[in-house]
Amino acid sequence: MVSAKNFLLRVIAKLNQLLGTKIVVSMFGLVMLSVVLGLGAFLFFNSAAPTSLTMLGGEVGSAYRKNAEKYQKILGKQGIKVNIVYSDGSSDNLAKLIDPKVDVDVGFVQGGDLTGVNISNLVSLGSVSYQPLMIFYRGDIKALLSDFEGMRLDIGEAGSGTYSLSLALLKANGIEVGGKTKFVHAPAADLINSLLDDRVDALFLMGDSVSSDVMRTLMHTPDIRLFSFIQADAYTRRIKYLNKLTLPQGSLDFGKNLPDEDTYLVAPTVELIARKNLHPALSDLLLEAAKEVHGGAGLFRKRGEFPAALQHEIPLSEQALNYYQSGKSFLYDTFPFWLASLMNRIIAVLVPIVLLLIPGMRIAPVLYRWRIQSRIYPWYSTLLELEREAFSVPLDEKRRDELLHRLNHIEHAVNKIKIPAAFGDLFYGLRGHIVFVRDRLRSSVESTGHS
Length: 451
Hints:
Strand content: 5-15%
Number of helices: 14
Distance between the termini: 75 Å
CATH class of the domain at 132-267: Alpha Beta
Largest sheet: 5 strands, mixed
Shape: rod-shaped
Mean pLDDT: 82
Low-confidence stretches: 15-24
Order of helices and strands: HHEHEHEEEEHEHEHEHEEEHHHHHH
Structural class: alpha/beta
Oligomer: single chain
CATH architecture of the domain at 132-267: 3-Layer(aba) Sandwich
C-alpha cells in the first residue's frame, strides 16, 4: 500500500514538472467530476432493478388471478418475487393503480371509456388478450340488444368490467337502470344456475369468466342460446375500444355443430397496465412472461397474436415500445437477471465518465497551451513595438541606451514567468528574440558611429 502511494506521488510530481501544477489539478478535477456524475447517474437513473413486484390478480378463481399466478411462477425463475393482491376485477384494478396510497405495480385492466379518469401516472405494456362479451339467454332468438328490454338481466356486479361494458352497450340501445328492465346479480358460484333455473332471462359474461366447458354446458341446454352481435361492425366503429370477434360454426362441438352458425361477438382487449415508475428491467420480464402466458393459440386468438402493441386510452410505455420493436434488451436477453442488472448499473456509471472524459482530455491540453501562450505572446507585441520605435528613425547613442534600458526591463519581467518544462520552447524562443533585438540595437549604433 505504501509503495503504491509513493509511486502515485512520484507520477504526480513528474506530471507537475512536465505540465505544471495547474493542468494536473485541472485534469484530476475533471476525472473526479466525471466519477461524481457517473455515480449520480447510477444512483438517480439506474438504481438496482427490484427483485419483487406487486401484481393485481382479480378474484380467486378468475382468469386474472390464474394468469397472475402464471406470471408469478415464470418470474420466480428469474429471481423476481411476485406478490399477488386480491381485487374485484378490472375496474378495481384500475382504481388501485391510480391511487398512490395503494402499493401496487401492475395489473390487468379491461379496455373501456376512461373519460374523466386521471391516468397520467399510468402506462400500458400492451394488450394481452381479447375479452369477449357473451350473452346467454332463454327463449326466442334475439337479433338486437334492444330486444332484451323489459327482461331480467344479470350484467355482473356493479364496478366490474362486465357491468361497465354491458351497461354502456345497453344504454346505447335505450336500456338503462331504473327503467322497466330488471337488473339482478347472482353470486359468482350461482351464476350459471340462475339462468338454468329460470331466475334470470339473460346472463352477461366476459370471456375471462367463461370456460369452454361452461360454454358447452349452456349451449347444450335446450332453449338457451348465445347472442350474436349482427351489428358488431357498427359497435366497433362507434365504441373505439371494441373489436369484432367470430366464434366459428362448430367450434364448440363438431359432432353437434355448436354453434350451428358463425356467431359474432364484441370484445375489448385486456391490457397490462403499470405505473410509470416501473423499472425497465421488470417491464421486459413482464412482457417475456406475457408471451409465454398469452402467446399460444386460443378460441379467440391466433398463436403469437398477443402480447400486442395496441394502444388505447393509456399510452404505451417507451420501454414497451422498444421491446415490441427490438425485443428484450441485449443484457437481459444474454445474461441472468441479477448479472444483467449489475452490468447495466456499471454501464450507467461508465458512460457519463467516458462521455465527459474523452472530449475533456482533448480540450484540456489545448486550453492549457493557450493559457501558457497567453503569458508569452503579449511580450512579443511589446518587443515588436520597441523594435519599430527604434528603427523608424535614425538611432543615436542616447536613444539606444534608453531603448536598451526598456529592453532590460522586458527581459527581467520575462525571466519571472513560470513556464512548465513542456513549454520551454516558447520561453526560450522569446528570450532568444530579446537577445536578437538587443544585438540589433547595439550593432545599429555601432554602424552609425563607424560611418
